[in-house]
Specification:
The chain is an all-alpha fold. The model has no long low-confidence stretch (mean pLDDT 85). Helix 1 packs across helix 2.
């Protein structure tokens, strides 16, 4: 840093332009550091959200698979999907709401099959 200050003093023999140049240079480096750290932090946050979504989608997909093979009950499937509703895309969420409102068992099974296929696509 001292080399840089000496370089600026040779460029600007008057102290006012040198001081302004030093301040601007320090601000530029500081802004670069802040922007870089924010970018890295956002990237890390996005990656964590994607990892969490993949875990939840996998759990839902497996629970639907168990239900379709009669190893689980409908309540457990609905509970898993409800807990993951904050991470579900709008289309899947709409399908799940229709699924909850449906009383016909055969229609529920078809909707679960469709939901299962859509979740596999998302994964």
């Amino acid at each position: 840093m001292s080399y840089f200050i000496e370089f600026l003093r040779t460029l600007f023999p008057d102290s006012t332009p040198a001081a302004i140049s030093i301040i601007v240079t320090v601000l530029v480096f500081w802004m670069y550091k802040e922007l870089r750290s924010n970018f890295l932090e956002n990237s890390k946050s996005n990656q964590q959200r994607v990892d969490k979504a993949l875990d939840i989608y996998s759990d839902i997909e497996f629970e639907i698979y168990k239900y379709l093979n009669e190893k689980s009950d409908l309540f457990t499937v609905a509970e898993k999907i409800s807990k993951a509703s904050t991470l579900l895309p709008y289309d899947l969420l709409k399908l799940f709401i229709k699924f909850k409102e449906t009383t016909n068992e055969s229609l529920k099974r078809e909707m679960l099959l469709e939901l299962h296929k859509d979740i596999e696509k998302e994964i």
